[in-house]
Amino acid sequence: MKKLLRLLFIAIIFQSAVAFAQDTVAPKTPICSLRLLLPPAVYAVPGHEISIYFDNVILTPCVKNYLFDVDCKAGRQDQERWRYTPESKDVGSFPFSLKVFDTFDKLAGEASTTVYLSPANAGAGKNISLLIVGDSLTDASVYPKELYKLFKNEGNPNVKFIGSHAGHGSEVKEGVPGHEGRGGWTWNSFCTKWTEEKDKPYRAKSPFLVLKEGKPVLDFKAYCDKYNEGKAPDFITIMLGINDSFGATDETIEKSIDSMFGYADTLLAEFRKVGPNTKIGIVLIPPPAATQDAFGSNYKCGQTRWQYRKNQHRVAERLIQKFAGKEKENLFIIPAYINIDCVNGFPKKQETANSRSSVKISRDSNGVHPAPEGYLQIADSIYYWLKYQLSQEK
Q1: Is residue 9 part of a domain?
Q2: Nearest-10 crossing angle of helices 372-392, 142-151
Q3: What is the pLDDT of residues 200-229, one digit of tens each?
Q4: CA within 20 to 30 Å of 161's CA: 139, 234, 248, 369, which one?
Q5: Are residues 252 and 376 in the same domain?
Q6: H/E/C letters for each residue in the chain?
Q7: Final residue before a domain boundary, out of 117, 148, 177
């Protein structure tokens, strides 16, 4: 009996050792569900690069555990992305498909979308108005300023940027586009915030609220009267959701998004009441910087990149579920999340490897807010969508 038990014990130890050795080579199954997420449409303009970064469209802690296979007649597949700089002769649309394989060459996910390439002169000479709404990524004002520059190029419409400030409460003036970006704000903030904030007064009250009978109420008509000669904007872009979901956990993310959607419905209904023909683009929030170093720099031990990445991906999934297919309601998805380089498009700083080392290394230093290069890619995504919309107008 003892001999039998010894043999059984040895067999268990051997099997465990084999399993450990196999797991150190590659995981048997995906660490988590990939939840491959391509947007309903990808937009492009001749002479400008568009990318789909593979790490941005799958949910995994380690993109290096997967292999990618792009099926598309245009562009090229690199290690970390598909990229494409179209020419004018390429105007039109074409399919894009992506397959993802694990390290055992087993299909882990596949999805497809359509790439729409709009003429470089779409909307040339027209007069349009644009309202940009967002949080700190908008308040930084880098991508609104880049949009302003892009529309100054030949073959574009004349764009009036509507807004109460031009970044951090600064004055709107010639050459400096106005917008409604406010650091730390949520969909809820734009619907309800009415406080007395002395340090940053531009963040004290929602620009879309007015006092009526002593109570703040949404009144987008009053906003348009003040900032756009009483007219509804031709276009509105909204990039919110970061602060709505930042502190969520796996257990609370759905409830956080449900609450966010309640305020989103309220704000969009108010916009729609004033501008039934206004085209509203919901910008899918970008993924975070590529490493935990960025979150350690900003939040110490208060937040991890992986939790934020899971939250961001879920927000994008549900925004697509909610707003995709609503083009007849003038609601659209702007897929900014696919087109940002999370490795090279976020701030970095030089520091010693450790306190005993003289070796200087580069570490990511901001988890959520891109470097200028990343912001410019966000501007590109919005510009491509706007050019597509202009190309559809008669």
Answers
A1: no
A2: 40
A3: 899 999 999 999 999 999 999 999 999 999
A4: 369
A5: yes
A6: CHHHHHHHHHHHHHHHHHHHHHHHHCCCCCCCCCCCCCCCEEEECCCCCEEEEHHHHCCCCCHHHCEEEEECCCCEECCCEEEECCCHHHCEEEEEEEEEECCCCCEEEEEEEEEEECCCCCCCCCEEEEEEEECHHHHCCHHHHHHHHHHCCCCCCEEEEECCECCCCCCCECCECCEEECCCCCHHHHHHCECCCCCCHHHCECCCEEEECCEEEECHHHHHHHHCCCCCCCEEEEECCHHHHCCCCCCCHHHHHHHHHHHHHHHHHHHHHHCCCCEEEEECCCCCCCCHHHHHHHHCCCCCHHHHHHHHHHHHHHHHHHHCCCHHHCEEEECHHHHCCCCCCCCEEEEECCCCCCCEEEEECCCCCCCHHHHHHHHHHHHHHHHHHHHHCC
A7: 117
User: Do the domain assignments include residue 10?
Assistant: no
- The tens digit of pLDDT for each residue in 259-313 reads 999 999 999 999 999 999 999 999 999 999 999 999 999 999 999 999 999 999 9
User: Residue 200 domain-assigned?
Assistant: yes
Work out the number of other CB atoms within 10 angstroms of the CB of residue 21. Answer: 9
SS3 289: coil
Containing structural domain, residue 208? 120-394
Total count of residues recorded for the chain = 394
Of 117, 142, 176, the residue that ends a domain is 117
- Are 47 and 145 found together in one domain? no
Strand, helix or coil at 179?
strand
* CATH number, residue 173: 3.40.50.1110
| Same domain, yes or no: 211 and 111 | no
pTM listed for this prediction: 0.91
Structural domains of the chain, count: 2
